[in-house]
Amino acid sequence: MSEAPPGxxxxxxxTAPKVAPELKGIGGWLLLPPLHLxxxxxxxxxxTVSAWSAHAAALAMSGMQAAVGLFALNGxxxxxxxxxxxxxxxxxxxxxTMMTAFYLLIIAKxxxxxAVLLIYPDLSQEPxxxxxxxxxxxxxxxxxxxxxAYFHKSERVKNTFVN
Length: 163
What we know:
mainly alpha; 5 helices; 69% helix; elongated
């Protein structure tokens, strides 16, 4: 057995730079978008079913095609969220673009909800419906801006979605 020269040890060098582990895989903050997609799927399916059952007769009599279009949009957003969720777990390289489109779709849907309510005020029986839909726009803009930036700047996202 050879002995170490005097003044040296077998301990690791504390002055050597530490190498950070590569951020890869669905973890960290990247755990939240799948949860958001699942919650949005459920929310939009519930909105479609509950709103349709509550307003179907009134809509058929009044001929408000825009409101019917919003019900259909809820269903389409839920379906698109499912597609995004599947592609996210497949780690496809185009997931950041799909998620950007998803968050922009959520923002557009919130703006469309507000626009329909402003055009057809009789559609809601709630006195503060315009305020609620205005807050819905803000509540979709803030997380949308955060997550769009995350999907385009994050090292974890760049290292994860490579297929």
